[in-house]
Amino acid sequence: MSVTIYVPCDSAALSLGANEVADAVVREAGSRNLEVQLVRNGSRGMLWLETMLEVATDAGRIAYGPVTEGDVASLFDADVMAGGEHALRLGKTDDLPWMQKQTRLTFARVGVTDPVSLDDYSEHGGLVGLKKALTMEPSAIVEAVVASGLRGRGGAGFPAGIKWRTVLGAAADQKYIACNADEGDSGTFSDRMIMEGDPYVLLEGMVIAGLAVDATEGYIYLRSEYPDAYVVLTSAIERARAAGWLGSDVLGSGKAFDVHVRLGAGSYVCGEETAMLESLEGKRGIVRAKPPLPALEGLWGKPTVVNNVMTLAAIPYILDQGGEAYAAYGTGRSLGTLPYQLAGNIKQGGLVEVPLGVTIRELLYDFGGGSATGRPIRAIQVGGPLGAYLPESKFDTPADYESLSAAGGLLGHGGIVAFDDTVDMSKMARYAMEFCAIESCGKCTPCRIGSTRGVEVVDRLVEGKNRKKDEALLRDLCDTLTSASLCAMGGLTPLPVLSALDHFPEDFAKSE
Predict the structure, then answer these.
(1) pLDDT tens per residue across span 140-159
(2) How far is 36 from 30, CA to CA, in rounded Å?
(3) Is residue 499 part of a domain?
(4) Long-range contacts of 469-477 (CB under 8 A, 24+ apart)
(5) How many angstroms separate the CA atoms of 488 and 185, rounded?
(6) Cα–Cα distance between 275 and 313 in angstroms, integer?
(7) CA dist., res. 459 & res. 461, Å (int)
(8) Is the pTM of this model over 0.90?
């Protein structure tokens, strides 16, 4: 009798020896004349338990972790194929507290299925949204997305349906869907986990977007540092084409939509939508002036929907269950769920999908378990390297768009990086300025020159020779960056700098 054993193919698991564990499972089963079906699934998001091995039993999937290559023999000795007791046995995967407290809409299949199996995808609810969309008028698809309240999950939080409505209304002989998969923010990995763990949900979302705005081609601009995602995505696209739901006749509808993957050039600023479009066109990735908006003049001058991975991956659920069902989650104008990513000095780092509105403290302690060092968490950064540093007094802030904005921060991509009480926030402020100086595309003076001068002023401020003058100069420089930069690269760099200065002034006065 064959038993199915799951070992993740996710990059995080691979870095912790998942391939070696998978090979050891095959070897051990062979040496014992046991029949095993090995499935390489996505990660469940509990990264501190990787490599997490699961076994399909009559009682459900039983998890073991963290498993190393050297543990495999003892697992088989303990009758792992029947879910036997072992020191690494965690119990039923679905019953683990980390899983129980989540609301997995976008990530419902990640860790459950074989990422490139079309049969698995269909058997677990895939393609239902697309099949419904094929029976609808484009405007009805757009209005379903409007009703869902879905906002762009890449940073700015602009309503996705409004963007789609603009592209649908634009007259053109060709339109495009551009997926921003250049996931470059610190502490973020949800895009990668979807592309490696459930690529078809992204492809289905892109096809639905194409049907909604009359676009026939889509491009995924993939971060070059994601080689594993590239392999999974390209394999999934080839299989989807062969199955007839990508190409010139989507599911026999007579409607066309195809997807192409393009690798990024390693530039952080190419995460900005217009710089990404420039790079997709084969040019240097520098920011375009707006207007015109990409929705009207985007890729090769044609109307283009630019959404990030998590936005497009939410679309199949919305078409399947309806916009109102998605809008039932969340709070205020921050509707739906968000995959929050916990990184930095955190005991239980990983990904959790819950409705928007959960507090930062809940994420850090109920899910994250506090700091990895056991020391107090002193600060966090939400929203990548351009996000604000928030002190412990702000941890009860709901992690949604409006609440974080009111607290002086931004939600961004939902990545949270934690720091314990040994962190020097003056160094973090300097890092933010230095990051901008390194990653600036150089097109506008405030960002290109201001960030370089900013590093120098922070250094002088910490030296403390003329603290009041240098602090005033730093604040004035930040005001110029905010007001005069062409894009968010320079415009948001002052956020981490000033938040560090405002919330942790003692770290800038060490020399006094």
Answers:
(1) 999 999 999 999 998 778 99
(2) 8
(3) yes
(4) 471/501, 471/508, 474/501, 475/501, 477/450, 477/453
(5) 13
(6) 22
(7) 5
(8) yes
